[in-house]
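Minutes, project check-in
Item: structure for the 186-residue chain
Input as provided by the requester:
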Amino acid sequence: MKAAAYIYALRCPETNEVRYIGKAKDPHSRLGGHIRSAGLRNRPLGNWIASLLKRGKRPSMTIEASCIGDWRPVEVAMIAQYRELTGNMLNVADGGDHVPMTVEQRRENSRSMATKFVKGTDDYWARGALKAIGETAKSMEGIWSAEKMATYMNAANKLKSIYKRDRGLFLQLVRAKPTIGKYAGA
């Protein structure tokens, strides 16, 4: 029988210390999600992963438990255990789908999201460029040759990677070379 959920640990690649406990149906996809969203929001886990990525490192993942039934108490117990052992955990919640937020945190999140994608700002423009890249790829499937699609996707992936690491550089690249085809040759 397949597990309904896995409890995973994200470990520091330098010390092997457990820094985060989480739950996922597909842990390796979840790790990719953590890495893709690193640094996009001001959260302890994302900031830590972003700092690792800047140094050319990634967190390692270990599966701590597989759960067929209710996974919540297992996650809660593991977070509590590692908090006590290390005192250096990045989990902001106690686990089990419970994310405690103060009224002030909710207000700050609302303000942050309301101003994050204001039309005309660099962040708004950059996200629009990324969306256009994805839409172009979808619209050209079956029209472009496999080789041309592979070249485009390689360039698109390079740009997405740069976007995650350095938005300023991303904006310089897409503004200087407005078509991804030009970037593919760079």
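Outcome recorded: Residues 114-118, 180-186 have pLDDT under 50 and may be disordered.
No further action items on this chain.
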